[in-house]
Design goal:
The protein has helices at about 1-25, 190-195; strands spanning about 35, 40-45, 50-60, 75-80, 90-95, 95-105, 110-115, 130-135, 145, 150-155, 160-170, 175-180, 205-215, 220-225, 235-240, 245-255, 265, 270-275, 280, 300-305, 310-320, 325-330, 340-345, 350-355, 360-365, 370-375. By secondary structure, the chain is mainly β. The strands form seven sheets. Strands 1-26-25-24 form a four-stranded antiparallel β-sheet, with no helix packed on it. The chain has a four-stranded antiparallel β-sheet with strand order 2-3-4-5, with no helix packed on it. The protein starts with a helix and ends with a strand.
Length: about 375
């Protein structure tokens, strides 16, 4: 009898352990809203009123649709959808893959970049690169501002009076910062200044990389790449500039690794999220000393809420030969307390875009599998 009891208890313990392992390994979270775009790599933005989602995506070329190249070249699409139920409000086809999507501060326009890398293996593909301006409440045709290279990053100032982008020439691979007014007309004084300013790096192998963000209407964070000593992985640094005085006001120490991909600023412009693990002030000084790492999750993108006391980061986990699954974490500032985690079960659901709702109660994410999800956050 004792033997049978011991066997039963032992068997029960093993079953419990196995169940717990499966639960915590394969436990996936369900979003409040899920939108399937039938495209790849959707980038998502939330309107200032919180009622609309702007989604930019691209149609993969069939021959290469199973490759995981982030800048899939195929016709792009812009969508406006209800953030409540995902219903389509309006759509527009664009010439190339959509790389960035943002709302203007007044919510009247969607500004997006379309990217064409022109790699040699995509024969016969005709595409263009530039910035698209889309009127939200009008049926006006898309305004297109062409560039000779693709727009790697795009942002608009807090007052909506200025745009900025990182333009990378497809043939020479040279990059340059670009500034324009609210209508996309070039701001010659700023453009000429930064063109000359970047010449200080000639021979030093430093150049604009892939990210920038406005801290407010006068200050901006710019990302540079430094190739120091021929390292395989470049060093990346962030410079902080006052655009009114055209003076550098700070710099974040170089670090080894690829583009930050999470560059965003707090509403008051005093804190910048420079990579998945660091927050700095506008002088480049860290404001956190013990930022928690991903714990097996590779983090790619992030964003701050409107109050500046939350950071949401997204990426992937359980990497396999054919892809990875998405993961999201929300941290408090400045306590660095983990508040929320979400895990996705779909293959290729790695997070490539993330945005807070204005009231801070939800976040929207875009995954490389073409799905946009809205997540409710705990109060």
């Amino acid at each position: 009898m004792r033997t049978l009891t011991w066997i039963a208890l032992s068997t029960g313990s093993v079953v419990a352990v196995v169940f717990a392992w499966f639960y915590f390994t394969f436990r996936f979270d369900t979003p409040a809203l899920e939108i399937h775009t039938d495209r790849w790599w959707p980038h998502v933005a939330v309107s200032p009123q919180g009622d609309l989602l702007a989604i930019g995506s691209s149609l993969p070329i069939p021959k290469y649709e199973k490759d995981y190249w982030p800048y899939i070249i195929g016709k792009g699409r812009l969508e406006l959808r209800s953030s409540k139920n995902g219903d389509i409000v309006k759509t527009a086809e664009v010439v190339s893959a959509v790389r960035n999507v943002i709302f203007s501060p007044d919510g009247e326009r969607v500004i997006a970049s379309v990217a064409d890398l022109k790699p040699t293996w995509f024969e016969g593909i005709v595409a263009e690169s530039g910035i698209v301006i889309w009127q939200v409440n009008k049926n006006d045709p898309l305004e297109f501002i062409p560039f000779s290279g693709y727009v790697a990053s795009l942002d608009i100032s807090n007052d909506g009076e200025m745009m900025a982008g990182v333009i990378r020439d497809a043939d020479s691979a040279k990059t340059q910062f670009w500034f324009g007014d609210s209508e996309g007309k070039p701001l010659s004084k700023l453009n000429e200044f930064f063109e000359q300013n970047n010449k200080r790096f000639e021979g030093y192998k430093q150049m604009p990389l892939g990210m920038l963000c406005f801290a407010d209407e006068k200050r901006i964070a710019l990302e540079y790449e430094r190739d120091i000593g021929g390292h395989i992985s470049p060093y990346v640094c962030i410079e902080f500039w006052n655009l009114e005085t055209m003076k550098k006001v700070g710099e974040f120490e170089p670090r080894k690794g690829s583009s930050s991909r999470v560059l965003s600023a707090s509403p008051n412009g005093e804190i910048v999220h420079v990579d998945p693990y660091h927050l700095v002030n506008m002088k480049g000084v860290k404001v956190n000393d013990s930022w928690p790492h991903g714990g097996g999750v590779q983090l790619y993108v992030g964003g701050m809420n409107a109050d500046g006391d939350r950071v949401a980061v997204g990426g992937g986990y359980r990497f396999e030969r054919r892809g990875s699954r998405g993961a999201i974490a929300v941290w408090s500032i400045p306590e660095w307390k983990l508040l929320e985690t979400f895990r996705l079960g779909d293959l290729h659901s790695t997070i490539n875009s993330i945005a807070y709702f204005p009231d801070g109660t939800r976040i929207a994410t875009g995954s490389r599998d073409g799905t946009v999800r809205v997540w409710d956050l705990s109060p």
